[in-house]
Structure formats: structure tokens, C-alpha cells
Write a structure and sequence with these properties.
Blueprint lengths: L1 E6 L3 H14 L3 E5 L10 E3 L5 E3 L7 E2 L2 H7 L5 E3 L4 E6 L6 E6 L3 H8 L5 H11 L9 H9 L1 H16 L29 E5 L3 H9 L4 E5 L3 H7 L2 E6 L3 H4 L9 E11 L9 E3 L9 E4 H5 L6 E9 L6 E2 L3 H16 L3 E3 L11 H18 L7
Parallel strand pairs: 1-2, 1-11, 2-10, 7-13, 11-17
Antiparallel strand pairs: 3-4, 5-9, 6-9, 7-8, 12-15, 12-16, 13-14, 14-15
Helix pairs in contact: 1-12, 5-6
The chain binds flavin-adenine dinucleotide (FAD) and uridine-5'-diphosphate (UDP).
Uridine-5'-diphosphate binds next to helix 6.
Amino acid sequence: MFDWLIVGAGFAGSVLAERLATQRGDKVLVIDRREHIAGNAYDHLDEAGVLIHRYGPHIFHTNSEAVFNHLSKFTAWRPYEHRVLAEVISPTTGQLVQVPIPINLDTINTLYGLSLTEAEVEGWMEARAEKVDQIRTSEDVVVGKVGRELYEMFFRGYTRKQWALDPSELDKSVTARVPTRTNTDDRYFTDKFQAMPRDGYTAMFARMLDQPGITVRTGMDFAEARKRFSFRRVIWTGPVDEYFGFRYGKLPYRSLKFRHETLDREWALPTGTVNHPAEETPFTRVSEYKWITGQKHPKTSVTYEFPSAEGDPYYPIPRPENAALYKKYEALADAEQDTWFVGRLATYRYYNMDQVVGQALSTFERIQKVVPPASAN
Ligand code: FAD
Ligand code: UDP
């Protein structure tokens, strides 16, 4: 008899498993229907021996010291600040160029052949920005800041590919993830902590889960675990609609197909990721792992991301009708006895890894208040 069945060995499930086992002495069974731990953060050596991320590049960044300190119990870190270029057609030369995204001072000066200063570019952007009364959608956020030309160049095509929706149909929070800058800061993220687990994510998860009281079964789904094991409580980190048998209909999730390639040369890209916003290009971005992991290797591996309707659910789709449908599932989840819903799929939130860790740690605090530890029985 397990005290907990944890469905999903990603960040949500693994962080909670470790807390429950080590802080309460509970007996925990962690299952995942995939053949491995670490959820979407899973990394492994490919055939050439290059460390790659099976589900696309995962770059760790957070402003939360608590989250960073917590994960630091299970890994050392390699400092890494991600930089991204976008491949677009220059409106002045008609040539393909690679320029910094988030749009910054250098992006504007390069594209338009200008030499504006930080103060001047602010006025330049304001003159192009459209007046938007209420910023509601992912289109509003960008045209309200830099105007339609840059919006179309960098955001419209990329977003239409990634989500199969026009930015005007998506919540503002989606493109608001990518800021606009008037300085020359070309980092993708500005968080206080930016680092990669030194030995990779999977190694970090293995250490987290290697605790007395934790049993891990990969290649096993919830239906099978239910038949084979008994348990008192459940932590569910899969899609919330799946748990309830799609009672109110399917919650939309967006998927991706990954094309992993190893090249017989040392480097492939000028930076960790190159975005391809043009709508005619079927992929959205290509990433080269050695930039991100710091690995030295005579070959190099890259991953192309092709957005797709079919496949594993990777992205909840932030728009009002989906939020309304999720609310109905959330009400069922709140009423479900002895079951906690945690993580990106279970709470239908477009969360980064650190936010999921934070959510798992606060769920643990809630559990502490209402569930006596097994050792108290
Ligand atoms: P998951 O990692 O999805 O884990 C859930 C697990 O549950 C899965 O392994 C699944 O197999 C399992 N499961 C589901 N249903 C069942 C069932 N019925 N039975 C058994 N097992 C089940 N975040 C960042 O911070 N930085 C990044 O750079 C970044 N890049 C990303 C790139 C891509 C392409 C994607 C898709 C996501 C990225 N993220 C990034 C987000 C990050 O992947 C998530 O925030 C995080 O992995 C979510 O963890 P989770 O535990 O909620 O879910
Ligand atoms: N986006 C875009 N062009 C870019 C980068 C991002 O249009 O060059 C938009 C797009 O809608 C994307 C969203 O901003 O889905 C968030 O980008 P982010 O890089 O955070 O996406 P993730 O890494 O989560 O896939």
C-alpha cells in the first residue's frame, strides 16, 4: 500500500515525490507512461554522444531564489544566458538577416540601417506603435509597442505557425513573454538565476527521485497502476481533461514534432537558437545544444520544431474560451477527494519549469496542512 500514487515523473511529480518521501516519510509510487523520468525536460546522449533534449530545448531561468535553492540540492549548475536570433528579411535591403529577438536597439539599427541611440529608439518605436485602447490579445501587445511592420516580421507568422491561430485570437500573455527592449541587451531572459543543470536534467531528476520511500515505474500509465497497486492518494500531473474522461470535451493543447539532427562538424548555428518567423517555413526554430549545455564535441546536434495539432500535449492554448472550459474541469478537480492536480497540463497553465517547481512546492505546503504524514498513523 502506497501513501501516494504520483502520475507523471516531470517537474511537478518528481518535486512532490521527493518532498513527501523525505519530509514526511510517506511511501510514494511515481509512474510515467513514457519510458523515462524527467517529463518534457528529459535529456539524453544521442548516437553521436551529444547531450540533447528529446522534447526541445529547455533553458532554466528563474527569479525565485527558493526554487533555485531547492533544485540546487540535486544538481550543480553551469551558468548560461540564452541568446536568440530571428531570421527575417530586411525591409531596407531585401536580404535575409539574423537579428536579435527580443527586438532591441541593435535589431532596429541593423534592419533599418540606422544608428539610433537608446533614447532615440524609444521615440522611433512610439511613432510606429498603434494606439490600442485595451491590450487584450497577442496582436495588441506587439502592435501597441512597435507597430505593424515589426509585428508582421517577427510575430505574426511565427505565432500563426506555433498555435494555428492568429495572434489576435490568442491571449496577450503569449507574445508578452517576449519583451521589446530599447537597449542592446540581447539575452532571451533577464531572470536573476540563469543556469543549466551541470550533468543534465535527467541526472538531476534521478538524484531527486533516489530516496528511500520512492518507487519509480516508467512505461506505466494510470489505468495500469490502478489495477496493480493500491494507494491512498493521488497526485495527477497529466492533462486535467484526460483525468475526467473528457467529460466536458477536449481541452485544446498544441503539439510539436521534433527533428533531431547530428551534423559532422563542430558548430551549426551562431547562437543557441535561431527563430524562423516566416510563415512559409514549416518550423519555428532550430536550436543547437552545445551552446546551451557547454558540451565539447567534434560533432554537433540540433533540433527543429515543427508545430502540430497531433501528438503529445505540450502547450495549453491561452484564450478565453479555453480558460472557460478549464474552469469547468478545475471545479471537478477541486471537488475530487484525495487527489491533487499539479503542473502545466493538470492546471492548464503555460508555465515554465521554475513556475511548475514553485507550484509543486506550494502544493506540498498545502498538503502539509491537511494530510497527516503516514508516520503519524
Ligand atoms: P510534464 O513534464 O509534461 O510531465 C508530465 C508527465 O506526466 C509526462 O512525462 C507524461 O508522460 C506523464 N503522464 C501524463 N498522463 C499520464 C498518465 N495517464 N499515466 C502516466 N503518466 C502520465 N520551460 C522552461 O522553463 N524553459 C524552457 O526553455 C522551456 N522550453 C520548453 C520547450 C518546449 C518545446 C516545451 C514543450 C516546453 C518547454 N518548457 C520550458 C516548459 C516545460 O517543459 C514545462 O514547464 C515542464 O516540463 C512541465 O512539467 P510538468 O511536470 O508539469 O509536466
Ligand atoms: N514569438 C514570436 N516570434 C518569436 C518568438 C516568439 O511570435 O520570434 C511568440 C510566439 O507566439 C511564441 C510566444 O511568442 O509562441 C512565446 O515565445 P517563447 O519563446 O516564450 O515560446 P516557448 O519557448 O514557450 O515555445
